[in-house]
């Protein structure tokens, strides 16, 4: 079963074996507004944890997407170039940015679980999205 971890910068990584799928959280896409452009890295590029992995531009701002872990880019979601709004429509599904082969799985230990990330969002003072199945209020 895939495990998803989050950064305080609102990136997620969904781990399946030695590969992780990286994107931005629903909270991040809602803060950005309508995404109009996505710049993806080249396949084969080595990324360092915390380093720039991609760029996302919205009607409000341009923001970097940081690598949640170190590794090598093994796939990019080239469909985002033609349909960047997919990031808004399905950030945790079809709106993923890249897949990375992890070089140090221990780096995942410094990331938040889904529950920890949800608790972190509560500290931001905004009205964060609820967990699926969680009652309103």
Tell me what the structure shows.
The protein is α+β, with helices and mostly antiparallel strands and 137 residues long. 18% of the residues lie in helices and 34% in strands. The protein is built from 4 helices and 9 strands; from the N terminus they run βββαβββββααβα. It has helices at 26-32, 79-82, 86-89, 114-122; strands at residues 3-6, 11-16, 19-24, 35-39, 46-47, 52-58, 62-66, 71-76, 98-102. The strands form 2 sheets. Strands 1-2-3-9-8-5 form a 6-stranded antiparallel β-sheet. Strands 4-6-7 form a 3-stranded antiparallel β-sheet. The chain is globular. Residues 128-137 have low confidence and may be disordered.
Computed CA radius of gyration, to the nearest angstrom: 14 Å
Helix content: 10-25%
What's the total count of β strands? 9
C-alpha termini separation: 30 Å
Overall residue-averaged pLDDT value? 91
Low-confidence stretches: 128-137
**Main beta sheet:** 6 strands, antiparallel
Overall structural class, as computed from helix and strand content, comes to alpha+beta
Q: Strand arrangement, largest sheet?
A: 1-2-3-9-8-5
List keywords for this structure.
three-stranded antiparallel beta sheet, 9 strands, globular, alpha+beta, 137 residues, six-stranded antiparallel beta sheet, 4 helices, 18% helix
């Amino acid at each position: 079963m895939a495990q998803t971890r989050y950064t305080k910068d609102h990136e997620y990584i969904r781990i399946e074996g030695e590969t992780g799928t990286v994107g931005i959280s629903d909270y991040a896409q809602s803060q950005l507004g309508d995404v109009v452009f996505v710049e993806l890295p080249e396949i084969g590029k080595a990324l360092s944890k915390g380093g720039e992995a991609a760029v996302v531009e919205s009607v409000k701002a341009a923001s970097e997407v940081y690598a949640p872990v170190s590794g090598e880019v093994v796939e990019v979601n080239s469909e985002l170039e033609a349909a960047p709004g997919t990031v808004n429509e399905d950030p945790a599904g079809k709106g993923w940015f890249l897949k990375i082969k992890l070089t140090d799985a221990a780096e995942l230990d410094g990331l938040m679980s889904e529950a920890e990330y949800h608790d972190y969002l509560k500290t931001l003072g905004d009205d964060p999205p609820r967990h699926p199945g969680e009652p309103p209020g």
